[in-house]
Amino acid sequence: MTVEERINQANDRVMELFLSAQPVWTDVRPAIEVVPGMRKNLILHPGPPIDKDNIVFPLKNSISGAAVHEGLAGTVEEAWQKVLSGEIEIAPAQDYHCGCAAAMVMSASMPVIVVEDKNGGGKGFSTPHPGPKPKVLRWGLYDAEVEEDLRHFRDVYCPALGEAVRASGGIDVKGILSKTAGMGDENHNRQPAGSMCCALTLAPYLIDTCSDKQVIKDFLANDRFFLNPVMAVALAVVDSAKKIRDSTVMVAMGGNGEDFGIQVAGTGNRWYTTQAPYIDGTMLKPSYTRADQLRYMGDSCVTEVYGFGGMCAIAGPMYMKLTGSSFQEAIDRTEKARRVSLGEHTFAPVPWDNYRGQPVGVDVRKVVGYNVLPISHGGSGLKTGGQAGAGAAELPIDCFKKALLGVARDMGIVKEG
Fold first, then answer.
1. Which residues of 130-140 are buried (b: 16+ CB within 10 A; e: fewer)?
2. Residues 333, 289: one domain?
3. What pLDDT digit, counting tens, does each position of 77-96 carry?
4. 187 and 150, same structural domain?
5. Are 45 and 96 in contact (CB under 8 A)?
6. What's the whole-model pTM score?
7. Do residues 66 and 43 make contact, with C-beta atoms less than 8 angstroms apart?
8. 68 assigned to some structural domain
9. Measured distance CA(394)–CA(372) in Å, rounded
10. Which letter, b or e, does each residue of 344-363 get, where b requires 16 or more Cβ atoms within 10 Å of its Cβ?
11. b/e map of 56-91 (b: 16 or more CB within 10 Å)?
12. Of 69, 201, 272, 371, which residue is 20 to 30 A from 218 by alpha carbon distance?
């Protein structure tokens, strides 16, 4: 069998997993109960591995705040010293099939959405979206008020969600995605339709199982809630894909505010990194400038690994408008994604794109060979913590070149060095 045949055969197996996945949201549980390898002193962060000496402030603050939340330290200052000494461990969330949006982190007691791919057998996890409050750990902010919210989330809100999900027998996430096709969601930075459909599906069970009206109100009022189940869906699918050697299909991507990285199925959890790009678009305040802004940060772009966000920009034309772009640019972004992808989802066709589905399965060979770079949507963070704005970024070519070389080395095509 030739090298090309080996790669194509492996890629076909990965694409079968991507296209035939049956993801079901089955539970909400503390991370330490369900995430393989989770430990009390381990905190998972977004993006690739971090150089502790160069970590950006919001992520440092989130990690330290989570450590205080877990009782691993009394103050954020003490917590960070324990991180530096190794007493508190940190690791990339996607290496554990977990996703942390923006500057969010995941610690042992934090509740996580559990998604199971009933076809491929993989599992994925994500912390639930915290709602519309601007002061949240998700954006690198931590104080007594945030701690109070984290405890309520852990002790009241998420246990109620978990009970409702279990009572439902599981939520068919792919079914929700198909129902909302043509309703304007690109399902990374815009998902009001998905959130509403998810609420319609879960609310009857939540009303039956939860007597706390505020919990119900908070759930129903969050039009970004559906982002995090979709993140967990993508992570469940790539859980199985990462076991397939020789494949050149991208299975992870994310940034930590300084570095950006991708993974490919053929080399599992190995990261290929370079300097992260900036997200260009609309700032939340006119006074914000590039000097206030962090580079790409967060794991929510794992939704794009599964074909959403910038990969199907045409599905969310209003996101383009809100971030200073155009309908034609939505078409162009989607066509770029099609050129470097190996397939497309057919369960959620876009009416104004001739009912074509979303491109999925980015092949690093195509990205490098055609020099066509996919576009990622995302929210941008402030260097001091908080959200700066939202828009899009072109993924850096160096990640893809390094990933292709990594697969070649694993296959024995080129030697180390």
1. bbeeeebbbbb
2. yes
3. 999 999 999 999 999 999 99
4. yes
5. no
6. 0.97
7. yes
8. yes
9. 10
10. bbeebbbeebeebbbbbbbb
11. bbbbbbbbbbbbbbbebbeebeebbebbeeeebebb
12. 69
H/E element, 297? strand 297-298
What is the separation of C-alpha 301 from the centre of its chain, rounded to a whole number of angstroms?
5
**Strand pairing partners for 378?**
391
**Residue 237 belongs to some domain of the structure:** no
Q: Residue 379 corresponds to which amino acid?
A: G
Q: What are phi and psi of 415, to 5 degrees?
A: -90, 160
Confidence check: pLDDT of 20 > 80? yes
CA 414/CA 417 separation, integer angstroms: 9
Residue positions counted in the chain: 417
CATH code, 284:
3.90.1700.10
* Residue whose C-alpha is closest to residue 219's, from 63, 33, 28: 28
Q: Could you give the 3-state DSSP secondary structure of residue 136? A: coil
| CATH number of residue 44's parent domain | 3.90.1710.10
Mind listing the pLDDT tens digit for each residue in 212-231?
999 999 999 999 999 999 99
Q: How far is CA 314 from CA 188, 287, 358, in A?
A: 13, 30, 9
Place of tokens 């876009």: 350
